[in-house]
Specification:
mainly alpha; 2 strands; 2% strand; two-stranded parallel sheet
Length: 224
């Protein structure tokens, strides 16, 4: 696969961000909105008995860090980067279909296997936590869809950055952003370690499948 020459990677990056800008923005917003309709339905109307996820040593090791709410909420910016870097409508459509399939798989798991995290003592007056706990309740825990869509996004961003010849520091930022979101789900006590593991596996499988089995995979990675 031929990468974009180093001297032009910035030009290529911003050109990609400009293409179909409004469609990408509105499409991502609609995609998130539709997902949350299904998410809250399965959360409030579990079809089967709810399983409480067990704690592990990892959960004891990761402390409660209120400031990690920032990377936790940054997911809603992060999810727009992968579609934002695609160069035309066809790869954007393919990306949307695969990410939609990922979300449907997660909602299917929540329907047939509803889960929740155990009660975790969280004492903080930090802004945003009362709202977060009121909206994003302890249910629909495993797999963590917060982690799953982050992993899916991170893989697509990495492939595109590598294709256009982006420097290592920019690709490292992508990896660090992904890791910070995953860790934040534990640090703000919205998930336990097994939820995160499930999210990594679910997002990783769909990311691999989307790049392996999409038609003309090399052209899709190039965004052409």
């Amino acid at each position: 696969m031929n990468a974009t020459p180093p001297a032009t990677w910035t030009r290529e990056l911003f050109a990609r961000l400009r293409v179909l800008f409004w469609l990408k923005g509105l499409g991502t917003t609609l995609w998130v909105w539709v997902f949350f309709i299904g998410y809250f339905h399965t959360l409030r109307h579990p079809a089967y008995p709810v399983t409480v996820m067990p704690l592990t040593g990892v959960d004891a090791w990761v402390p409660f860090l209120p400031w990690m709410l920032v990377p936790y909420l940054s997911l809603w910016v992060y999810v727009g980067i992968a579609p934002g870097l695609l160069r035309s409508f066809r790869p954007l459509l393919v990306y949307g279909l695969w990410s939609g399939a990922l979300c449907l798989a997660g909602l299917g798991i929540f329907h047939f296997w509803p889960t929740q995290i155990p009660p975790l003592a969280v004492h903080t007056t930090a802004p945003g936590f009362a709202l977060l706990q009121g909206i994003d309740a302890a249910g629909n825990a495993c797999p963590s869809m917060h982690v799953a869509i982050s992993v899916f996004t991170g893989v697509w961003v990495e492939r595109t950055l590598r294709f256009i010849g982006a420097p290592g520091w920019l690709r490292a930022i992508n990896v660090l952003w992904l890791l910070s979101i995953c860790i934040s789900t534990l640090a703000v006590r919205q998930h336990v370690a097994l939820d995160v593991l499930g999210g990594v596996l679910l997002g990783g499988v769909f990311a691999w499948a989307s790049l392996r089995w999409s038609p003309a995979e090399r052209r899709l990675t190039a965004g052409q």
